[in-house]
From TrEMBL:
Stated family: Belongs to the class I-like SAM-binding methyltransferase superfamily. EFM7 family.
Source taxonomy: Eukaryota, Fungi, Dikarya, Ascomycota, Pezizomycotina
Signal peptide: none
Compartments where found: Cytoplasm
Function: S-adenosyl-L-methionine-dependent protein methyltransferase that trimethylates the N-terminal glycine 'Gly-2' of elongation factor 1-alpha, before also catalyzing the mono- and dimethylation of 'Lys-3'.
Protein name: Protein N-terminal and lysine N-methyltransferase EFM7
Enzyme's top EC category: transferase
Listed InterPro entries: EFM7, Methyltransf_16, SAM-dependent_MTases_sf
Gene3D superfamilies xrefs: Vaccinia Virus protein VP39
Amino acid sequence: MSSEDDFLGFGDTFKDPEGFYPPEKEPTFAEHQMLSGETVRVRLVGSHALYGDLLWNAGRTSSTYLEEHASRLVEGKDVLEIGAAAGVPSIISAVKGARTVVMTDYPDPELVENMRHNASLAAPMIPSSSSLHVDGYKWGNPVEPLFEYLPEGGKGFDLLIMADVVYNYPEHPNLIKIMQQCLKKTSDAVALVVFTPYEPWFLPRTQTFFPRAENSGFEVTNVFEKVMDTVLFENDPGDELLRRTVFGYEIRWAPDQLK
């Protein structure tokens, strides 16, 4: 309240009463059990418009898939994750021997600080041969700052992790652009795209990402469909089986793009 308001006699008339706004939710913690028996513990943002307060099924399933296929997808590779939230897939990649991992999400200070916190928590599990970096990145922005984390002479990433991002239909062009600009032009470079249709009525729209990718120089392979034991949001509407299903795809450069 300004001194002018006091002068006019308003006093505390327009001051919000104590307890008028609900208190901000405190951060919580979640754990991901690795196949190796190790446990990755991460902090979740208490409440955030970009859903940093959840450990999503796609993130957990991506992490397990990366661990299962670490020798092919992760070991010695350069990895970029977009929309990382708590960053479990990035952490698993670093633990399993990736050469470089860059964990990114929207450049919101709270989200980025939380990713850095989780990277610090995981540091004792990460071998000295791996490096895990954290940065904010807005889809569609120039990717050159991300390349600065690569070893000298690096020309792209071997693995791009995209867990629960393709539901954002308006961002499909930017997601394709990221793949085009960030994936190495090699036959084994791969984007791992994993999602759950939490709102099943949007599934046809979400799936348009894949023909768009094929029309942009990529080959798309459906590598798994995993049905979780329970839904993430119990009271949501829509087909329960779809809401429990995690879809996984590997996307690579089409052969004619490598000539």
